[in-house]
Amino acid sequence: MKIVAIKVYQVDLPLVEGRYSWSEGKFVEVFDSTVVELITDDGHVGYGEICPLGPFYLPAFGPGARAGIGELSATLLGQDPTAIGPINQLMDKALLGHPYVKSAIDMACWDLLGKATGKSVCALMGGKFGESVALYRAISQRPADEMAANVAAHRADGYTKFQLKVGGKPEDDIARINAAAETLTDGEVLVADANTGWRVDDAIRVVNAVRDRDVYIEQPCRSYEHCLTIRRRTSLPFILDENITGVDALLRGHADGAMDAINLKISKVGGLTKARLIRDICVSLNIPMTIEDSWGGDIITAAIAHLAHSTPEALRFSATDFNSYVTVQNATGAPQRVSGHMIASDEAGLGIAPNMDVLGKPVAEYKS
Ligand code: MG
To answer: How far is the CA of 344 from the centre of ligand 1 (A)?
Structure first.
């Protein structure tokens, strides 16, 4: 099997809630998603997606994804997409860094590997653990009372895990955490995710003020060193996200005792292949994971479901159903949330079929 054509599509994904707001006043109203289609000489077609959280969350942006796929196209044409290891090595040799660009291509290669073998990506990644995957709901940054009300609204959808978007003024964030924590019922999990938005002194004020609450603190500050400072000054359980960019960062954090859990985003680490490696190391080290991506539509939601469902339940902190946050369906067959849970498809590959009406005409096309 050889790649003979690569098509790139751009899809706007508007938000159901109108606006998603997080730390430092950042927000997105319409996500810029990129879908890549790999076509092979024997008629198979594989799909992958990359959807940055705007251009200012991670070092990633929509037009950059599309330019990067163009940059890699000559390397990819003529290659066997089911040779996941060599494909990743070739991409890393041809383009230094830019993990988010490679993520969409790697995802499409897994889709093709599944279709070629008649196996779901989840089966190829080791098989399912448990019946379904419990999801968390991100609670967009708003005044404290509105966020507490949104926790209640999403509880009605079956969610039991809530991630508050904080990273604003310390006094406002303390109020947000307290208001949401007051509403919690037995068995629910609350995370306060600052998304790098606090200075060290801000973070110390917040963790001191909420020290008696049952809440996780996620990525308080931008640098690893500042996060480690906060980690050592709080008794609250602690999650690292933006700093966990690969195996090196994970092992350093583990050696330093810098976190109790991590957030594993597929595109942040360069695709399903590298995310699976990090997942497997976390399983070996007994580190729980939130498994997700920076953002996405149905194709990314399917990929998350395959990686998450093939992860042992005890280490699956949570996962995300991004396709329920947006108004546009870029594929059919993706998992649909039921009572706060989703299930990976048993169909071959990712188990999705793109909605070509939504994808429209390719914005770029490369052929051998
Ligand atoms: Mg996070």
So the answer is: 23
Residues linked to residue 39 through DSSP beta bridges, in sequence order? 5, 45
User: What is the 55 CA–ligand 1 centroid distance (Å)?
Assistant: 16
Which residues of the chain carry a pLDDT beneath 70?
A: none
Report how far ligand 1's centroid is from the alpha carbon of 12 (Å): 23
pLDDT in the model for residue 216: 98
Report pLDDT digits (tens) over 277-287.
999 999 999 99
In angstroms, rounded to a whole number, what is the distance separating the alpha carbons of residues 236 and 319?
A: 21
Catalytic residue among 165, 268, 274, 367: 165
Query: Any catalytic annotation for residue 93?
Result: no
For 61-72, the pLDDT digits (tens) are: 999 999 999 999
Residue 168 pLDDT: 97
Q: What is the CATH number of domain 3-118+354-367?
A: 3.30.390.10
**Nearest CA to 49 among 297, 364, 275?**
297
Q: What is the dihedral of CA 282, 287, 288, 294, to 10 degrees?
A: -60
Q: Which residues in the chain are classed under CATH 3.20.20.120?
A: 123-351
- CATH class of the domain at 123-351: alpha beta
Q: How much distance in Å is there from the Cα of 151 to the middle of ligand 1? A: 17
